Amino acid sequence: MQASDGSRYLRLEDLDTSNGPQLQVWLTDAPVQPGKDSWFVFDDGRHVDLGPLKGNKGSQNYAVPAEADLTQYRSVTIWCARFHVSFGAAELNPP
Fold first, then answer.
1. Cβ atoms within 10 A of the Cβ of 94, count?
2. Each residue of 58-68: pLDDT tens digit?
3. What is the largest CA-CA distance in the chain?
4. What Pfam families does the entry give (predicted)?
């Protein structure tokens, strides 16, 4: 989403995921795959770290850096830096 001042942000609506250590929100170039197939793929290519997960339940916003080319990213993942695994992912809508 883009604010009236031109800043961009990612909005997670009604998030409900497990809690875990070192959870980060990433934009990635990896496609979302069903089941366990996508647990480990999101750090294989390009990603932009939007910062620590603010909470494992509810809606929240994350600032997207101005230099991030959103046409290069296909998904968002909740990435566990400690265990190198995804706690959940969703396809991004094209900008």
1. 8
2. 999 999 999 99
3. 39
4. DM13
pLDDT in tens, 21-53: 999 999 999 989 887 777 777 888 899 999 999
Instruction: Answer whether residue 4 shows pLDDT above 70.
Output: yes
Distance CA 5, CA 52 (A): 24
Model-wide pTM > 0.70: yes
Q: Which residues pair with 88 in a beta bridge?
A: 78
